[in-house]
Amino acid sequence: MSLFKKNPFGHYLFLKLWLIRIAGLMTHRRFKGFNDLQIHGSEILKNLPEKNVLFVSNHQTYFADVAAMLHVFNASLSGRDDSIKNVGYLWRPKLNIYFVAAKETMKAGLLPKILAYAGSVSIERTWREKGKEVNKQVKMSDVSNITKALNDGWVITFPQGTTKPWRPIRRGTAHIIKKNKPVVVPIVIDGFRRSFDKKGIRIKKRGILQSMEIKPPLDIDYENDTMDEIVEKLEYAIEQHPSFLKVIPTSAIQSEEELNKEREWRY
User: Fold this and answer.
1) At what angle do helices 227-237 and 171-180 cross, to 10 degrees?
2) How far apart are CA 199 and CA 7, in angstroms?
3) What pTM was estimated for this model as a whole?
């Protein structure tokens, strides 16, 4: 690899490679040590195209969710099935994996800035800013940057735009899907909210069973499916459709709400 080769965002791939290696070594025990990450469906990753793949997932922490996915993606591409045992897969990671994140979050400190260089596509949130509800226009440059990332490789996005469960899917994700026609792969995660703080940096509790289920690509008719139909498909795929609340015990929902309030207070 050339020392001066860059990705479409102007980031040096050699530097990105070492950032991923170092960050991967630092975070591995969070998913295979302090806690146990149970993985299902990682074989799906091996059959995906090299680019124009959009991963959609529910969201539980700012950074731990993405870190776990990068471990699982690279481990699977290195021949492991539902396992991140042995960090040798970090030596030759896939360098064209990106994740969509709020620009405000990725500028808040040195660590987020380092993670941003490792693969963030930073966007300005149109619905929330500095902890307050806002209503801003979507920046076309943000949409263009996501398209640029899809044209180069894989992109991870959290279409609810928040770490709180059962929030509505943002229609911007459906717009991205209609525009770029990517392979859309749903991911459902659990356990991260209990094991990490809201940022996903501090370990809050050890011995937590974490899970990640990678589902088959969604069947989407890019030409004829409406925005609302795509949104509904995403809600069901990442198990955040309101109908799921009808089969979850009230006590479990209350427990989640109390945990959310505690995390917000700590944050």
Assistant:
1) 110
2) 27
3) 0.86
